[in-house]
Amino acid sequence: MAEPLLQLAQLSAGYGLARVINDVSLTLEAGRSLAVLGRNGTGKTTLLNTIIGATRHLGGTIRFEGRDITKLRSDLRARGGIGWVPQERNIFKSLTVEENLTAVAQPGAWDVEAVYRLFPRLKERRGNMGNQLSGGEQQMLAVARALVLNPRLILLDEPTEGLAPIIIEELLAALKRITRDEGLSAIIVEQHAQKILGVTDAAIILDRGAIVHQSTSASLIADPAPLETHLGVTGKKAGVRGGH
Amino acid sequence: MQGTPIDTATRHLAETSRWKPLECAFWLVAFGAIWLLPSHHLILNEIIITALFAMSLDLILGYAGIASLGHAAFFGFGAYFAGIFAILVIGDPLTGLVLAMLASGALGFITSFLVLRGVDLARLMVTLGVALVLGEIANKMTWLTGGADGLQGVMMGPVLGLFEFDLYGRTAYVYSLVVTFLLFLLARRIVVSPFGLSLRTIRDNPLRARAIGIPVNRRLIAVYTLAAAYAGAAGALLAQTTQFVSLDVIALHRSADVLLMLVIGGTGYLYGGFAGAIVFKVLQDVISNWTPQYWTFWIGLILVILVLIGRERMNHQAAVLWARLRGKPEPRPRTIVGGH
């Protein structure tokens, strides 16, 4: 039986003395995508930061493609196949769009031209500095920068936050293409379930650093009761709709 | 979707490596000075060596964000190495230069591990400490370095076996200029390569750079080693062209001066060191002729004004004025090579 792409076992982590995520266990198969839902401050971002190696490890293990990466440096995790799109996007402001991509590119299907095809807007702005981009363009660049690493798993932290609805549509379409058509595995942190459940295969809900609900995205769309219970939104308000 | 980062990097290099008219003009003037300013070769030699030294600091400060108050350690080490090599082994300038670069690079590599620990203030102290230690070693090893009396008896052979160093500094300037130009070409290539770009991501945010796959420590070690080799080359050029080395080459003020030159000229675009060295040395020369006692006062005052007004703003205003004079649209702030 093939190893899962990512396996977290009783993972605990935090910052300094603070334990933010506690005993989290989950498995992600290759080619599948997972939505991480939860209210503010429940540990969603910390979970992604822990997978990429930017938090203090307090217990448990992280296995990626069968290999224990719990103690691996974050740059080696990234080079090993985990792409990361941080919440603040963190575009390198003194580099142009193209330089942001060239600085990290690794061999593989996703090269600069491929991400330009995915986000034509970036090609138009290829000579612009990072700080001359709009929020939506910065988010596209952050996703593109993760893609040119040619990862097997991409971690996206609230990719739609603060974006105009039309940009969100464009971004979600790109994410759907990445996960569904290209078969790239993804973990997408999102506060607003309605935006992301149509893109992912499965979902977990975090509360106080622990998983309180785990199911397929389709079942959450069909029965949004867990969203009402844990996120305090009604199914109607959550607006979950099929996207498969 | 097939392609390689090498293709992308090659295209990027080709696009960003194009020479701008201003760059061509700069180097034409620098080489033209060989014939146009024959009576100023000595000061020109000093300026070009200082510019190379400043460029070496720019590689770590402007591109990788490593502040150093002890960069003269490598300059001085290169100078002593080249001087001692000429006395004890052979007076061939190029051999001495290459070996001095390698030796300074090796010293940079060893000390780079100290620089990796801590940031900003800690780095300033560590680099300062390394320079102080080396300075004291040079002072105490009188039998080798000449101590406070300086290293004497440095005799250089002709460059390429053909060009003898002369009293007027012509060979010295041409030699230093050619070496600096070649090292500049290499640095120019490096800073626009993916390696150079990754340095700038580290300068912008080392934690994020690491998390997107950039081996931060390895890159910092590499650029620190390279910068040390460049500084060593500058020191070696000074030793070979003046045929004398004193403790002054490793002193704190030399590290501070080169930092000031980058403040004047700007960091992160390679030419900042050249601009700063020219302004600093010319001011030093002019003001010390005008008022030998108080020239440091005037230099200090000019620096304070420069910092208060802001170099970027002055550069931009000059560019705007130039554009208006030519009837062209006003430019946005920009750089020549990479940088920001």
Describe the structure.
The complex is a heterodimer of chains A (244) and B (340). Chain A is of the alpha/beta class. Chain A has one domain: Rossmann fold (3-Layer(aba) Sandwich), CATH 3.40.50. Chain A is 34% helix and 26% strand. Chain A is built from eleven helices and ten strands. Chain A has helices at 44-52, 74-79, 97-102, 112-118, 120-124, 135-147, 165-181, 193-196, 217-222, 225-231, 235-238; strands at residues 6-15, 18-28, 33-37, 56-64, 67-68, 82-85, 153-157, 185-189, 202-207, 210-216. In chain A, the strands form two sheets. A six-stranded mixed beta sheet of chain A has the order 6-7-8-3-9-10, sandwiched between helices. The longest helix of chain A has 17 residues, at 165-181. The radius of gyration of chain A is 17 Å and the shape is globular. By secondary structure, chain B is mostly helical. Chain B has one domain (25-274): ABC transporter involved in vitamin B12 uptake, BtuC (Orthogonal Bundle), CATH 1.10.3470. Chain B is 73% helix and 0% strand. Chain B contains 15 helices and no strands. In chain B, helix 4 (72-88) crosses helix 11 (216-242) and helix 5 packs antiparallel against helix 11 (216-242). The longest helix of chain B is centred in the last third of the chain and has 27 residues, at 216-242. Chain B is globular. Mean pLDDT of chain B is 88; it is low at 333-340. At the A-B interface, helix 2, helix 3 and helix 4 of A face helix 1, helix 9 and helix 10 of B.
